[in-house]
Amino acid sequence: MPAPSRPAVVAAGSYAPPFSVRRGRRRILVANGDEDAVTLAIEAADDCLARYEGPVDELHLALPRPELINGPQVEIVREAIGLDAGVPVSVSAGDSLAGLAALAAATDAVRAGRVRSVLVVATEPGDGERVSAGSVALMVAGCDTPSLRPATQRSSGDVVYGNWVDGNGGRHPGDSRYIEQCVTHHARSAVAALDGAEAPPPAAVTGVAAAAVSAAFGNGLCTVLPDRGVAGPLLAILVVGAATTESAAPTVVATTASRAVAVGVEIEAGAPLLVRDLPGEIPELPEPIDVHASPPLSLPGSSPFFQRSARELLRYEGGRCGRCGHVVFPPSQRTVCPACHGYRFTPVQLSRTGSVYTFVVNRFLPTGFGSDMILVLAEMDDGSRYWAPTSGMSPDVVSIGARVDLRLRRFTDHGGAPVYAMKFVLPRTACGAESAGATTESRDVA
Question: What span, in angstroms and rounded, lies between the C-alpha atoms of 74 and 303?
Fold first, then answer.
């Protein structure tokens, strides 16, 4: 068992879908038609692991509702990001504070010496009305000089007041002014319990009552972040850490419709934290594309075919011939080398970035595919070629030579269970974010 150590956030990653819709005077980020809690979690985890070289002993997932991820989907996340099958996975769900619960469990495990490192991923599919979709991943590990260390949390509140039904069956919304007043009171109590009665205002506030809480502490003294649901509190911690230029211990407040939680963080001067999801106003982004699922599979997802090829399809992993070096994909279906007839292969990670070699827009599709589908043959950066449909790309943005990335997306379902496969998407640079360059190589485990 590892020795007890001081937990620290040693790497971080995030993902924001490059689509938005207008709701009144606001725009919120929304997931594309083939994105869900699983694909959002994989995107943020890949982004985090691209900046971390070390063991991953546990994976903690946080979701707003437990039904968003269940059954084999947990194993799909673990397999797709390159973790060994023996890495334990735990799931926290309930409300937007589930991410803080997962982070607290991770820091406790590292502090006690039970594990060396824990990957915490908070994934928020959004509600399409108020909460933006996105995900945040934090790598918590033992460190002598931490860059950002979550400290004690204090919570307050339990407002049992919301929508109500009159005697005639009519539904009425709760008085938001009363709820905001209660949550503001709970926020003050939580900050006072954490830092004392004379504590300075929190550095950042997020959640459903963020604006009201910020006004109560003094407008302009707190950074107000858009509501990102379960990913919001972790994103607030990263924003505060990246904005700190000298050693400090600022406070972050996360609010729900019934509670407020104050989180104190110790931040080392010059912490190398990268926040890819900007906390300001959401820019004008393209509308999401309504993706139609393919017809049901002829083989169930639990069939031997998918069981044998799950790792290589989820990770885009090929096999290199031990005799001549020829690379085949998928190796489970190419058991004999076509070049030298050898049969000994070693796993090799294939490139997931490339350029469009050619493409076709198919508008004559069977029932279940929708009205059209863009199929791209891309020349990958390692010289191979891969044929796959696109995700979130309209025909007017696809052109010969355009850069594309291979990412995991929901492809279809079988008996209600989603099935995932690789699709081509625009690089993050084309969506207004820095390219991740993530890898999915297998990682050391306990």
Answer: 18
Give the pair of three-digit tokens for residue 43. Answer: 């995107």
Residue 321 in tokens: 């011939």
Residue pair 331/319 in contact by the 8 Å Cβ criterion: yes
What DSSP designation does 133 have? P
Q: Which of 305, 327, 350 is the endpoint of a domain?
A: 350
The string of pLDDT tens digits covering residues 272-287 is 455 554 444 566 778 8
CATH number, domain with residue 190? 3.40.47
State the pTM of this model.
Answer: 0.84
Single out the residue of 166, 177, 155, 33 nearest to residue 96, CA to CA: 155
Contact in structure between 120 and 8 (CB atoms under 8 Å): no
Report yes or no on 265 lying in a domain: yes
- Strand ranges (DSSP E) for 157-217? 164-165, 171-172, 204-207
Residue 161 placed within a domain? yes
Report d(CA 283, CA 288) in Å as an integer.
14
Residue 111 CA from chain centroid, whole number: 25
Position 237 in a domain: yes
**Domain that residue 179 falls in:** 153-277
Specify which residues 58 forms β-bridges with: 118
Any domain includes 50: no
Domain boundary among 225, 248, 277: 277
Beta strands 117-124; 58-63: pairing state: parallel
pLDDT tens readout for residues 84-110? 888 999 998 888 888 888 988 888 888
> How many structural domains does the chain have?
2
